[in-house]
C-alpha cells in the first residue's frame, strides 16, 4: 500500500481522512500552523512543511478546501514533483462551490437583485478572490479578525461540544496576503476585527454573502445581523453546514431558520455548504 501525507491537520477533514485511509497508508499530516506541529490527529503525527522533504512517502494529499491552490503552490516551492501532489479529494468540492458562485452571479445579475457582496471568514482569500472576479462591478466587503478564532467563541464551542476548535486557529493569514489575490482590488473593503462587531454602522444592502466562520456563535449572530441587509432574492452561502467537525454551523442555521419565514434552504453540491435565499414573505402563491 502506498504511503501518503495529508496536508491540512484539522478535525474538519475527518470525512476526507476516512476516504484516503481506504486507499493509502497515512503516515502523517502537514500543516502551516506551528501550534499543531508534533501533535497527534486521528492517531497520526503532524509535521511542519519543511519536514516534507525529509520524509518518505508516495503522495501528498491536499485536504484543505479553502486553500487548495495556495497549498499546492507551497508544496511545489519546496521542490516536490507535481506528480506527487493529489487534490482529488477536495478538488471536486472546491470546483462545485466555485461553479455555483459563477452561475449564481449570473442569475442575480439577470434578476436585478441589488446590493454589494461580502465574505465573512476570509482566511487567506482564495474564495474571496472568486467572489471578486464573479462580481467585478460590486464592492466586496471582507470581514475577518485576521488573527484566528476568538476565545469568546471557543468557550461556546466547548460549552456545547460543537467542535474541538482552539483559539488562534486559522491565524496564518494577513490582509496583504488576501489583497494580492484580488483581480479587482479597488472594489475591496476590509472590515478587520471581531465579528459581528465589525458590522456596526454598516448600512449597505447585499445580494450575496459567503459565511465561512466554522463556529456557532459568530454564525448565528452574523445571520441575525446580515439577513436584515440582504436583498429579496439574495443568497447567503454557509460553509461547513454538512461538516461533522463543526456541529455548531447546522445548529446555528436551524435555529435561525426557526426564527424567520422569508428563507429557502438548498444544498449547493459541494458536500459541505448550504445556501439560504431570501424570499418575499408577503408573496402569495397562485
UniProtKB/TrEMBL annotation:
Residues 2-86 form the C2185-like N-terminal domain. GO terms for biological process: methylation. GO terms for molecular function: methyltransferase activity. It comes from the Bacteria. Keywords: Methyltransferase, Transferase. SUPFAM superfamilies: S-adenosyl-L-methionine-dependent methyltransferases. Gene3D superfamilies: Vaccinia Virus protein VP39. PANTHER family: MACROCIN O-METHYLTRANSFERASE (PTHR40036:SF1). This is Methyltransferase.
Amino acid at each position: 500500500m502506498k504511503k501518503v501525507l495529508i496536508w491540512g491537520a484539522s478535525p474538519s477533514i475527518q470525512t476526507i481522512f476516512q476516504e484516503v485511509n481506504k486507499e493509502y497508508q497515512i503516515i502523517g499530516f502537514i500543516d502551516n500552523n506551528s501550534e499543531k506541529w508534533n501533535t497527534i490527529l486521528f492517531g497520526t503525527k503532524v509535521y511542519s512543511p519543511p519536514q516534507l522533504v525529509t520524509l518518505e512517502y508516495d503522495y501528498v494529499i491536499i485536504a484543505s478546501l479553502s486553500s487548495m491552490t495556495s497549498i499546492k503552490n507551497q508544496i511545489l516551492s519546496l521542490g516536490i514533483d507535481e506528480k506527487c501532489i493529489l487534490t482529488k479529494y477536495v478538488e471536486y468540492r472546491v470546483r462545485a462551490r466555485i461553479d455555483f458562485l459563477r452561475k449564481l452571479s449570473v442569475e442575480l445579475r439577470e434578476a436585478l437583485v441589488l446590493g454589494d457582496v461580502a465574505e465573512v471568514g476570509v482566511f487567506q482569500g482564495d474564495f474571496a478572490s472568486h467572489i471578486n472576479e464573479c462580481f467585478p462591478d460590486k464592492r466586496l466587503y471582507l470581514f475577518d479578525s485576521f488573527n484566528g478564532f476568538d476565545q469568546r467563541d471557543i468557550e461556546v464551542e466547548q460549552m456545547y461540544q460543537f467542535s474541538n476548535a482552539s483559539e488562534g486557529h486559522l491565524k496564518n493569514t494577513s490582509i496583504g496576503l488576501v489583497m494580492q489575490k484580488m483581480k479587482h482590488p479597488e472594489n475591496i473593503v476590509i472590515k478587520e476585527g471581531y465579528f459581528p462587531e465589525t458590522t456596526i454602522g454598516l448600512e449597505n444592502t447585499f445580494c450575496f454573502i459567503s459565511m465561512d466562520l466554522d463556529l456557532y456563535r459568530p454564525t448565528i449572530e452574523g445571520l441575525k445581523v446580515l439577513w436584515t441587509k440582504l436583498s429579496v432574492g439574495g443568497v447567503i452561502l454557509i460553509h461547513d453546514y454538512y461538516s461533522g467537525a463543526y456541529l455548531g454551523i447546522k445548529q446555528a442555521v436551524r435555529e435561525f431558520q426557526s426564527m424567520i419565514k422569508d428563507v429557502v434552504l438548498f444544498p449547493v453540491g459541494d458536500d459541505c455548504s448550504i445556501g439560504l435565499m431570501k424570499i418575499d414573505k408577503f408573496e402569495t402563491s397562485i
